[in-house]
Design brief:
heterotrimer; A mainly alpha (288); B alpha/beta (434); C alpha/beta (606); B: alpha/beta; Rossmann fold; five-stranded parallel sheet; 17 helices; 43% helix; C: 606 residues; 3 domains; six-stranded mixed sheet; 50% helix; elongated
């Protein structure tokens, strides 16, 4: 029982990291219709940016800011330089997925070529460990959870109350119609990529902090968890991504308490496949 | 249409390979004055990427010393790396490619557990001598005439870990091994050994090396209240596990008993970064294959190896660790044994010099003991029979060409240097085998 | 040297087989199978466990299922069967109307999942260590180390590759292959023309899977080892890169891609001088970066690949050199073409009184989330009429048409066709019953020629099944020739014979409309559902089309036509139904409708 409670706590941490990542991913897909499989690679690039800053002597939280900036800019460039031109040409979604796989290889192994394949860690203190109600969490982990909640609230506020958020939702629902209503869709798209790219960088650093030790290929499997969260909640649905992240995060950690832990990701994968087979629009998406 | 396709494939293939360098077969003696190649067949990428450069470092050390002493019958030696990528399916083509494109291949070193089961039969079929670093049990009893092993079987290494735990007074031990080939082989013998030693195994967690967090596993370990953890999970897994155990355990690292694979600069670097150098080193022991740390053999080895500092690609961290890195030391011995055997048999053909490896390693009554290549060469020139004893200690090959070393207990200093803090005897390990 | 050459050739043969299979799935049939490597893996493992001795042999150091020590060629046959069988569970991902990119993601995840399961569950295939010491074919009779043996194995592998190439070409160059390519180009349209997408995709998955399995078996017999590291999802990416670069849709392109990418590229990098000053992982990392770059650059600059898909030119008998206009006087007339055979299936009864309804919609409702697009619509279309369906934008006309055709499901209500309740029937089955639709937006099969577009619609070509395709040209030649003749007649009726061998995607808007209509006619419909067939078409051409449609109705066809242009309704349609806001307002002749005030208000202007 104690292990179960503890694993719930761990699940919350994983869910927090996943939530930040999944919301960014799903908004990219919702607004621009691109399944950006290079998302994981950009995450790890952000993690390494923070690592470089950290090695130069600064705190990793400073590095986090740097990573956010770099990944935001980088994502905008990837979209305007690669995805958007392909889309303008009328490329099919499946070919775009293949393009994004190509970008994954370029970015991830570009990082590996420069940084090497060995594992690295941030130099940071994890703070004290709290044992509360069966949960065991360090200060840093609590910060991560809090950060994630703040981000979720911010995204919610953005989508619901700001003009930009409404423009994003409109563009996601029907780009042509949005443009006809006077929304500057190309600007909305650029801003979306900048914002979600920032989320991606943030997710990457938080992921690396949470891992203890990482290398350029560390996000390969994590990307599948992101996909599981996104598809569980419904692709393009920000709230769905949050819900999906919670479920997947908890499921992977809690299952490790009951089944041999080397199978813990199997649970997430199976959930994803079942969703795709049974209800591809996700729990919060409209039924097909 | 069919023939055109076949012809197309053949033509293209021939065209590409027309530029390939030709290779002599490995069965004839090398042309005089040519350079002999020693191939380091090991992982240079993947989770075990630390191993390839480790062996390469000692290869450089050995071959440079040999060349400085005049080489082998007028031939100089050079090292070549062959990246197996740590898995059998990549290793086999890499080895085939090596045979096809390496002129004057004289010896193979390396072949770790990651690929040995697949490549040893191939190298043996090519009649090439090899010194392998695999403790896998199949090589305890299967006859490969060209296979030589200077490291103990994994079985023994598992017992060594148990013996360390026993000596340190641990009564409860948790297991945490990775799901890859090399690490999985320790589990069963460890469990059996713990039982024989009367130590309770509190939990057995298998770690997926692809995962990036192991919190639940760490918590399960902590909740089982072990005195120590026996572990091998290379790559990022062990450092991550240690870090998470520390977090969940109120800032305390649980004592670690690791395998010899943990004696490597990248492992130290990652673990120290994950939990802090002093926290790590004050809670860490590993078994390691015995290597000398003083004496004439060590002096020669140390001189030869340290001269290569900064010249070996892929080596990182504290170079002096390579003086006690597992396997590296023994492969240095293997190269020396092979070189001396070549001189003794007056041939660079493994089919000819192979038996002399055994003679020089085991010695004949009245043989002169030599501690380096230079000494051995001089003694041979003077017509004496020799027995080689290198920094890996005395060898004694059995009929399967396995020479079981003895074990020592290693720790790290906070700056990464390796210290030997104890020794284990063969009798102790035999007692655990039950 | 021998070893090296043999190595290269066997890898070339194995990779070529794998790329051919992938090309068949992806380049020809449009099934993007990101889990492709699983099939090769299944074949490899099956061949291994069939050939290996029981697991207690070799010292018992490996644990695995099977171990029946079967002689060659049983392991290879087993590998092929396993590859095909393991495709079956995948069909749930590709058969449904799942977005292509979603299905691709699902397949990729499946590959990762299976790799993880095999790695962790050791008793199955020895986990991460994989299987080693796999017996080679006939190693009891021959010495596998002899150079003669190795060359023998190489030749066998190359011959198998050639056989696979020949076999796949036979399938692709048949009417069945044409249907596959049509499905690739536009699956919704293929569905509406009677193609059973699920069956086609399943067929291709199983077939491609079997060939991939065979390639795995051959590979395993050569390298005598097989482990999870050999089939991560990165391998699938490499194979996709190979097919794209070589030329998707062209089997020779697939072979070329295999030689260039997995073989050429990886082999070439082994030649880069082993500079000991570079970090050892630099070259492999850069290799991957280069593959990524190649994928993106090729998809941008040359998406058709180095060897693009060839145009299938079908020579038409008696057709003079292509010219734009009608044949000049004095030219040899075309040989007697069969009469326009758009004969409806059932002969029209000559009974007095109102004609029977061919198609009836009863209380059809369709909701999209909160919006009710079709609101309790009941409509009957009578035999031999050219019935119009008109209404403002958003009235629900196209939605209703889609429901009648089967492209969309009704939320509630019934559709009755020729007395039969077809409400639950999928579109392709309705097409086979003679209920055929066209689409509002351009929906020609772009990478098929005009003639091929027409031929895909023919419902009863013997070569249009997998079995028929395998049986070969002689089996289906008769049906094909008859179909070509019909197509030629239709083309000349509409004056487009000269464009027969042009890509449908290259035509002008008006011409593409005609192709759409002609194609629908080729399907031998009893009833046509036309969705704005005149949209964007020159008025003269529109008139010609209208006249043709009227003529068809006089011959017994029934047509329901959705249109905007009132003039068209005036001229050709009787009766006409008006829809607005999801409901039918009124029905009657145009004259009657113009007199009804609510219709005038809703839609008609003056």
């Amino acid at each position: 029982m104690a292990l179960f409670l503890a694993s719930v706590g761990f699940g919350l941490v994983t869910a927090s990291v996943l939530a930040i990542a999944a919301v960014g991913f799903t908004l990219q897909f919702g607004v621009t219709d691109v399944l950006n499989l290079a998302y994981g690679a950009i995450m790890i690039a952000g993690a390494y940016v923070a690592y470089v800053v950290n090695q130069a002597g600064a705190s990793v939280w400073v590095g986090l800011v740097a990573a956010v900036a770099v990944c935001s800019l980088g994502s905008v460039l990837v979209n305007s330089g690669v995805y958007a031109p392909f889309q303008r040409r009328g490329t099919s979604p499946i070919t775009l997925v293949i393009v994004s796989l190509g970008m994954t290889l370029i970015i991830e192994f570009g990082v590996e070529a420069v940084a090497g394949g060995a594992g690295v860690s941030y130099t940071m203190s994890q703070g004290t460990t709290f044992h509360e109600g069966g949960l065991i969490l360090t200060t840093v982990q609590l910060v991560i959870i809090a950060l994630s909640l703040v981000i979720m609230a911010g995204v919610h506020a953005l989508l619901r109350y700001t003009k930009l958020g409404k423009a994003m939702r409109a563009t996601a629902a029907n780009k042509t119609l949005a443009r006809n209503c006077g929304i500057r869709t190309s600007r909305v798209i650029t801003v979306t990529w900048a914002l979600t790219g920032a989320l991606c960088g943030l997710a990457g650093v938080v992921f690396a902090i949470d891992s203890g030790s990482f290398d350029p290929t560390a996000t390969d499997i994590f990307l599948v968890l992101i996909l599981a969260a996104v598809f569980l909640g419904g692709p393009g649905q920000a709230y769905g991504a949050m819900l999906g992240a919670l479920v997947i995060g908890l499921a992977t950690e809690v299952s490790a308490a009951f089944i041999p832990p080397d199978y813990k990701y199997v649970v997430a994968f199976v959930i994803l496949l079942v969703m795709l087979g049974v209800r591809p629009t996700g729990l919060l998406g409209a039924p097909a | 249409m069919k023939l055109a396709t076949v012809g197309l494939a053949l033509a293209l293939a021939l065209g590409v390979t027309a530029c390939a360098s030709s290779s002599t077969t490995s069965n004839s003696s090398a042309a005089s004055g040519s350079t002999l190649t020693v191939a380091d067949v090991a992982p240079f990428s993947g989770p075990d990427a630390a191993l390839g450069p480790t062996y390469l470092a000692t290869c450089y050390g050995a071959t440079t010393a040999i060349n400085n002493a005049g080489g082998v019958m007028g031939h100089k030696l050079a090292c070549k790396s062959v990246d197996t990528r740590g898995d059998p399916a990549d290793a086999v083509p890499a080895v085939n490619q090596m045979f096809a494109s390496t002129s004057n291949l004289a010896l193979v070193i390396g072949c770790t557990s990651d690929e040995a089961a697949a490549v040893v039969p191939i190298i043996n079929a090519h009649k090439m001598a090899m010194f392998c670093m695999t403790g896998q049990s199949e090589f305890d009893h299967v006859h490969y005439p060209y296979f030589y092993r200077l490291v103990p079987p994994d079985l023994e290494e598992a017992y060594a870990m148990v013996q360390i735990a026993k000596q340190l007074g641990y009564k409860r031990v948790a297991l945490a091994f990775g799901n890859d080939i090399g690490s999985q082989t320790f589990i069963q013998p460890a469990i059996a050994g713990l039982k024989t030693a009367g130590i309770t195994m509190t939990t057995n967690q298998t770690l997926d090396l692809n995962a990036t967090t192991f919190r639940t596993e760490a918590e399960a370990i902590i909740a089982s209240h072990p005195d120590a953890i026996m572990t091998e999970a290379l790559g990022n897994a062990d450092p991550t596990l240690f870090s998470e155990i520390k977090q969940l355990n109120g800032g305390k690292v649980i004592p670690i008993v690791a395998t010899s694979a943990a004696i490597s600069p990248p492992f130290f670097k990652a673990s120290a970064a994950a939990v802090g150098a002093s926290a790590f080193t004050s809670n860490f022991h590993a078994d390691n294959l015995v290597t000398e740390s003083s004496g004439p053999a060590y002096a020669a080895f140390s001189k030869a190896l340290l001269a290569e500092q900064g010249k070996v690609p892929g080596t990182t961290g504290n170079f002096t660790t390579y003086l006690s890195a597992p396997g590296g030391v023994h492969l240095y011995d293997g190269i020396n044994l092979a070189a001396l055997a070549m001189i003794m048999s007056k041939s660079t053909n493994p089919s000819v010099y192979g038996p002399d490896i055994i003679k020089i390693g085991n010695g004949v009554p009245g043989a002169t003991v030599v501690y380096s290549f230079a000494q051995g060469e001089a003694a041979l020139k003077a017509g004496k029979a020799i027995r080689y004893e290198g920094p890996g200690g005395p060898t004694s090959f059995d009929s399967y060409h396995d020479s079981t070393g003895i074990f020592q207990v290693d720790t790290y200093s906070p700056n990464g240097t390796v210290n030997v803090v104890g020794n284990l005897t063969a009798a102790q390990l035999r007692a655990l085998a039950g | 040297m021998t070893y090296y050459l043999v190595n290269l050739l066997i890898y070339a043969a194995v990779d070529a087989m794998a790329c051919l299979a992938l090309n068949q799935q992806f380049g020809i049939a449009g099934v993007t199978n990101f889990g492709f490597i699983i099939f090769q893996a299944a074949g490899g493992y099956t061949a291994a466990i069939l050939a290996m001795p029981p697991k207690s042999a070799n010292g018992g150091f490996q644990s695995y299922i099977g171990g029946w020590n079967l002689p060659f060629p049983l392991p290879w046959i087993g590998a092929t069967v396993a590859g095909g069988l393991i495709a079956l569970p995948f069909t749930f991902l590709v058969g449904r109307r799942l977005r292509g990119d979603f299905a691709a993601v699902g397949l990729l995840v499946t590959a990762v999942l299976l790799n993880l399961l095999v790695t962790n569950y050791v008793p199955l295939f020895n986990g991460d260590a994989g299987l080693s010491l796999i017996p080679q074919p006939l190693q009891g009779e021959f010495n596998p180390l002899a150079s003669g043996y190795k060359w023998g194995l190489t030749v066998v592998a190359l011959l198998l590759c050639a056989a696979v190439y020949w076999f796949l070409r036979r399938i692709t160059e048949s009417p069945y292959g044409r249907s596959l390519r049509a499905m690739r180009d536009n699956d919704a349209v293929a569905d509406s023309l009677g193609k059973n997408l699920l069956s086609l995709r399943t067929g291709m998955l199983v077939l491609g899977g079997a060939i991939a399995g065979l390639s795995g078996g051959v590979l395993v017999s050569y390298i005598t080892t097989w482990s999870p590291a050999a089939w991560g999802y990165a391998e699938t990416v490499v194979l996709f890169a190979a097919v794209i670069i070589g030329g998707a849709g062209n089997h020779r392109g697939a072979i070329l891609g295999a030689i260039l990418v997995p073989v050429g590229f990886e082999e070439a990098t082994r030649y880069i001088p082993n500079s000991n000053s570079l970090p050892p992982n630099l070259i492999p990392s850069l290799q991957w970066v280069a593959i990524g770059l190649l994928i993106v650059l090729f998809l941008w600059f040359r998406p058709q690949g180095i060897l693009p898909e060839r145009k299938r030119v079908i020579p038409l008998p008696g057709l003079p050199a292509p010219r734009a206009g009608p044949p000049a006087d004095g030219e040899k007339a075309a040989p007697a073409a069969p009469a326009i055979s758009v004969r409806p299936r059932a002969a029209p009864p000559e009974s007095p009184g109102p004609r029977p309804a061919v198609l009836e919609a009863v209380d059809i409702v369709r909701d999209f989330g909160g919006v009710r697009a079709v609101n309790d619509v009941s409509l009957a279309v009578r035999r031999g009429t050219l019935t119009g369906l008109i209404g403002p934008n958003g009235a629900g006309k196209s939605t209703l048409l889609a429901i009648l055709a089967g492209t969309l499901r009704a939320s509630s209500g019934t559709v009755i066709y020729q007395g039969q309740d077809i409400t639950g029937m999928p579109a392709y089955r309705r097409a086979r019953l003679g209920l055929v639709r066209t689409f509002q937006l351009a929906s020609e099969f772009k990478r098929l020629t005009v003639l091929e577009n027409l031929l895909t619609a023919v419902p009863s070509n013997r070569g249009d099944t997998l079995r028929g395709a395998i049986a070969g040209r002689r089996y289906w030649k008769g049906d094909e020739t008859a179909a070509i003749a019909r197509a030629q007649a239709v083309l000349s009726r509409f004056g487009l014979e000269s464009l027969a061998n042009s890509y449908a995607g290259d035509l002008s808007g008006g011409q593409r409309r005609l192709v759409e209509i002609m194609r629908a006619l080729m399907a031998e419909p009893t009833m046509l559902l036309l969705d704005e067939p005149m949209a964007g078409v020159h008025p003269n051409l529109a008139r010609r089309i209208g006249n043709e449609l009227v003529a068809l109705c006089q011959e017994g066809m029934t047509i329901l036509m959705v249109e905007h242009e009132l003039a068209i309704m005036d001229e050709f349609c009787d009766p006409v139904a008006v829809m607005a806001e999801g409901a039918v307002l009124a029905e009657g002749t145009m004259a009657q409708l113009r007199r009804r005030s609510e219709v005038v208000e809703a839609y008609l202007v003056g």
